[in-house]
Amino acid sequence: MATQDAPPRWDLRMRQRLTRGEAAALGELYDRFASLVHGLAHRVLDDERAADGITREVFVRIWEDPEAYDPKQGPLRSWLAALTHRLAVQRLRATETAALERGGEGSAEELERKVHHASVAARADYIVQAMPSPLRAALELAYFQRRDYRRTAADLGVTEDEARRRLRLGLQLLATAHDTRPSGTPPEPGGTT
Question: Which family does it belong to (predicted)?
Answer without folding.
Answer: Belongs to the sigma-70 factor family. ECF subfamily.
